[in-house]
Amino acid sequence: MKFFIDTADLDEIRELSATGLLDGVTTNPSLIRKAGGEFFETIAEIAKLVDGPVSAETVATDHETMLKEGLKLAKIADNIAIKVPLTVDGLKTCKALRAQGIMVNVTLCFSASQALLAAKAGASFISPFVGRHDDISQDGMALIEDIRTIYDNYDFETEILVASIRHPLHVVEAARIGADVATIPAAVMKKLFQHPLTDRGLEAFLKDWKETGQSIL
Ligand code: E4P
Questions:
Q1: pTM score of the predicted model
Q2: Which CATH number is 2-212 given?
């Protein structure tokens, strides 16, 4: 399973990229606003920090303008994936960008029928938002299972990128289902490492080791 980080904060990306466990980055207009930097400079900097796909989102709603935006953003670096919304114009733009060999991440997916259309439009990634489903008392992970089944039925190459992740169990569930990618907020990513028994066990081992009076180096 690939791990992307869901942020436009350069410090967070630097910190987690240093673990060697980051496979890519996703951003959206809200994350760009939160990070506060200039859009193009931020995306260019992120694209230098990670080798994998860096999603940069278009903001036009009509196909023509969206395509122009996508082509402009794709020039920033070779590892840019253009994010388009799951609308008719978004999927038209997806097809056009894919025809030019540009990676596309179709975002704001909330149903299996939408995911099927994105795959038919040749999307590199489909981003179903699990947390926003859970927020309205619907089962976000059930959608991931449906999409996995549908994509496997037809050998679609579109990667399932689980988005809107709120906690570590979302990541575990997504992995259990066989999603290709999880895009994870930095705070949740850090929680994946943690277990109180690891801390307690390490503390006891180090205490006992100290009492041996020996050293390894
Ligand atoms: C990522 O690509 C999505 O834009 C993001 O995961 C949405 O997360 P949110 O529902 O927490 O805003």
A1: 0.97
A2: 3.20.20.70
